[in-house]
Structure formats: structure tokens, C-alpha cells
Design a protein that fits this description.
heterodimer, A: 208 residues, alpha/beta, Rossmann fold, six-stranded parallel β-sheet, 6 strands, globular, B: 200 residues, two-stranded antiparallel sheet, 8 helices, 18% strand
Amino acid sequence: MNPHPPSAAVILYYPLRSFPPIHGIPMKKNAESAWPDEVHALLSAAGVRQVAIVPDAGHARLIKLCEKDKAMRVVRLTTEEEGVALLAGAWLGGEKGVLLMQSSGVGNCINMLTLPLACQFPLLMLITMRGDHGEFNPAQIPMGNATQVVLEAMGVIVKRADQEEDVTEMVSSAMRLAFNTYRPVALLIGQRVSGAKDFRKLTQSVSK
Amino acid sequence: MSKPMGKLLRRREVVKYLLADRGDILVIGGLGAPAWDITNAGDHDLNFPLWGAMGGAAMLGLGLALAQPKKKVLVVTGDGEMLMGLGALATIAVQQPRKLSIVVLDNERYGETGMQETHTAHGVDLAGMAKAAGIAQTLAVRTQAELSRLKQRIYAGEGALFAQIKIDPEKLPLVLPPRDGSLLKHRFRAALLGANAAHQ
């Protein structure tokens, strides 16, 4: 016999059949966040010219700001590793760049990271997390869970920002590490900052 | 070392010809034989030979070409290396860098690993793929006359260019550039940007 039977209160509070489906923590609108504007201003002040992207919803506003900035060249990639090579070329030519991507693209970059590691190229990677806080999609979990470990296994310096108010300062710090010490640095921007995709809402909006 | 198999162009002669009187052109060499080929033509501060990063040569060239739009940039790479990064053809076509040339020395083999066949040995048309991606000028080169036209176009620098040169699958002695990536980077930047580049 179970020596610790669940109390009636717990059973009443969590009746199994009425467990609410969890569809993810609603996404905050980036427009409400100050960090994309602040980060764009930081990149601009640092003289970042090439902005290599594979889009993520968490980067949507920052990408828009970079596209509007006439001093920046936004380079859309077919896969994230292209950005690693692109930005090595940029530095060879005297320009700074940034790679904006989602954590699921980290796996695509691993061997190409040889280039900045073996040649001591600065590389600033701003990576918005999936498979993290409040994830709904099981397919996002393996890469999200492994993102930091595989980057560190390659020798990339990894920093994290999990609070909205920390993002700008952490970008500034990662940027200085990358460009002052000539190495690849990744800042992981947690899913808690931008919110997880709310699949229930998206499903409803399509079916209505 | 194997002997040439007939009328195909020979890689060392092709690269020597393309780099003769090179002026201030910036040259990237894809890993393996193309890196040895550009070194054989004369090690140069404005050469950046790759020792790794397979599939990245063309994108490295794009980043350099965007940073230095007034300079001509030549990427010399192999068919295996290009096949690993085909998406770059689309990315480059969208950016349309005016003075970037990608030249693929196509021996239809993975030369460094035992001469195994690549897809181009089975009809994959790299120049056709580059054209379909939207790269402004694409050329398939098999003869000295075509090579001569290619050289004129590279040095004219009038639009993104992609060329696939069919070459003899000969195995040649390696001609190694320096291996220290940091040195290769520094000497390239110093030659291109001036001695102060090290203080950037």
C-alpha cells in the first residue's frame, strides 16, 4: 500500500481529465521590448557593416532595423555556416559583422567554426533560443538542449541572457570579447526573453 | 605522380595563367589542391589559402568582396568543396557582388582522399546551377581559348562570375602555403589594409 497517498486537495486541484493543454508561453511582441533597438544602436556604433541572417521570430525587429540602416548590409543565408565563412571574409576585408540566428542553426555551423578558431577571426553570434523556456515543439528540444554544450565543445565562448533587461549589456559584452580578443563568441538569448511560440493561438487564427 | 590523361586543361597551368600579372586581385584558395595550386603560382600576401572550412570558400569570397567592393576577388576552389556549399551560389546571386569571381577546378574527384568521384563525374552541372541561381556570368571552360576569355572577364570585374573548368584528374606534389591561420590572416590584412590593420 502506498504510504503516501495523495491528499484529496491535490486530486481536486489537478483532476487529470481537465489538465489544461500547454501550448507554450505566449510570445511577447518584440515591439514592446527595448533591446532590439538598443542592440541595433550598439552594432551601429561599433561599426558593424555585414549582418548575416537566417531569420528567427526573436530577431524579427532587429533584422528590420538592420535592413533600414543604410550603413548595414543584410545578407540572407541558406544555412548558418555560410555566415561563419562570410564574416571571416568580411574581417579579412576590414569590416565587422554579426550573425543573427536561431539555436537550431548552431548544429549547421560546427565544422565551419574551424575558420574563426584556427585563424583567430572575431565572430559575434547572437542566437535566439528554441527548445528552451516553455517550448511546445518536441523537435526543437534536442538542438536547443545541446546548443551551449556543442558550441563550448568547439571552443566558442558562450554567454547567456535570460532576462530582457540583460540583453543589451550582454550583447555589448559579447561584442567586445569577440572583436577585442579575436575569437568566436556566442550570446544565447533565452526563450524567456522573447517568449515561446503559442501554437494554440496560431492554430486558432488559421482555422477561424 | 600520374600523367595527364589527354587534352584536358592542367590545374597548375590554369592557375598560373590566371594569376600571372595579377595586380592587386585578392585570392582565396579552397582547401586541398586549389590551395596548393595558388601557392604553386607564387605564394603571395594577398592569397588566403584555406586549410579547412570545406564548403566555405565562396562565402569567404563574398564577405571579402562586400567589404572591398572596389577590389577584384577571385575564389579558386574544387568541385568537391563547391558541392558542399551549393547554397552559397544562391546567396551570392542575391547579393550580386560586382567584382567577385568563383572558379571551380573540376577534376570530378575528391583528390585529397583517394580520387573518389564527385557528383560532377555523373553529370552535375555546376555552371548550370550557378546560372539557375542567378549569378550574372557563368562559363564552362574546357579549352585554352575559353580560359583566355575567362581571364579577361575576371580582370574586367563587371559582375559576379562563376566558372567551371574541366581539368585533368592528375595527382601532383603538394605545394604548401604557411599553415598558421593567424599568420595568413595578418599578412593578408596588412597587405590590403596597411600595417595599422593589426591595431583594429
